């Protein structure tokens, strides 16, 4: 049974190739929008839409319908390789499937949306029989050989490729079905670690280590402000020059003529955003890989990232570190290293419990960085104490703690630990083997494309 992985490689295309890439992305986007509009129409008529039937209909009209012909009456779709305009139908079907699955699982979900130029991820697909790799070049249909910055690192059956753009950079993500042996990585340690995520230190480990995140956004924020102000000023000028009302949204369908300087400064801004995203991803990848490689069990909190982002003071530092990405990276890396990832229940009072005796400090506030346990006298650093409390979830299904001082000392079972990633039922008691957790192999799952995930999350954080 093979596993799916993908490797994302930067491309060095020529200007002509970039031109084709842009047109192919535009085609994929336009076909997606057409298919989604038709989908909604079918639903409005009370029918059950079907992506493959839509594709058939599209194939029948794509070289004839006036909407898909250029000014000379020529079908411009012929210039774009067909994978770019066939794949959106499959993607749309997947997107609806995911939407309904999430609804059924009771998770917050949103319907597939229309893609807007400049606001969506630009990408197009190439099927595995349509491209060929040779060392550091990839031969793509319609554009020929494109230089890559490195050769494909994975060995196995190539499943397909997606060409995408980030800022001004072009990338190809190659999906490969690799043998199990290549999928699983060797762990170098058998420790157990609890991780408290925070704003002061990005991560405090139960080993006592504090990991500081590079705060790229914070440092770059001033620059970012200046640059985005420059861009918006130029856009505003272009708007006035074109006779549009200032600060009002452009009428639908109208196009603003932009000066070269305006375009250039927009590019500069995009590059800056891309750099920040790279710094953040690099830090998180290194940290999550290290945690999974060196531990047999990793315990984290179930942070309500969406809720925290609504908090005015917390939003920026949290998105700067990328907590959402952190969790997702841990999830797929834990699978590869055979590390058990335990996610504490959202209501587990990891900061409030004394990690030595289990007394619960109900009066602890967000401001208290340090506190002393009145029961055993232990001095606690807030973050380290929380990390220690999380760590013990790896070995204990029950945590000794008591609510309020005069109550008799009881061992309270907390329905807290649930293995993450496989969607299994929450279990209260971890397997205990001489105080250690036995590593768990996860059930085979398809389509855990690591780079794909990174990119998807990168867009959000
Ligand atoms: Zn105590």
From TrEMBL:
Q: Listed GO molecular functions?
A: DNA binding; metal ion binding
Q: Which InterPro entries match?
A: Cas12f1-like_TNB (IPR010095), RNA-guided_DNA_endo/Transpos (IPR051399), Transposase (IPR001959), Transposase_put_HTH (IPR021027)
- Which keywords, in A-to-Z order, does the entry hold? DNA recombination, DNA-binding, Metal-binding, Transposition, Zinc
Show where the Cas12f1-like TNB domain sits.
Answer: 323-390
Q: Which Pfam families match?
A: Cas12f1-like_TNB, HTH_OrfB_IS605, OrfB_IS605
Q: Where is the Probable transposase IS891/IS1136/IS1341 domain?
A: 174-238, 254-310
Q: Which GO terms describe its biological process?
A: DNA recombination; transposition
Keyword Nucleus tagged? no
**Keyword Coiled coil (UniProt):** no
Q: Where is the Transposase putative helix-turn-helix domain?
A: 1-43
Q: Which family does it belong to?
A: In the C-terminal section; belongs to the transposase 35 family.
Task: Indicate what this protein is called per its UniProt record.
Answer: Transposase, IS605 OrfB family
